[in-house]
Amino acid sequence: MYPHERSLVExxxxxxxxxxxxxxxxxxxxxxxxxxxxxxxxxxxxDGGGTDGPISTKWGVRGWPTVYVLDHEGVIRSTxxxxxxxxxxxxxxxxxxxxxxx
Length: 102
Known about the structure:
The chain has helices at residues 2-11, 28-37, 54-59, 83-101, and strands at residues 21-23, 44-46, 68-70, 76-79. By secondary structure, it is an alpha+beta fold. The protein has a single domain (2-101), classed as Glutaredoxin (3-Layer(aba) Sandwich). The strands form two sheets. The chain has a two-stranded parallel sheet with strand order 1-2. The chain is globular, with a radius of gyration of 14 Å.
């Protein structure tokens, strides 16, 4: 999903939009290497492996990748959207967030 996520970061660079990653690999060094190798420009938190880490547990994550889309008020508007489905949700929510800033 990294190439698609990177394209979203570029597309919405001037919009109220952010990606925050949570990584479940068991080896933090591996996580750092992947983030560097894939040139990830967004924060990616280490959750200690599996779906029993504190972040995964709090958010009810049962598998990877899991995608939550939150609106400008912090309300979850979509879960598990990927590809075109994710694009559609963002195309609907970004203009609302921009209007809320004005």
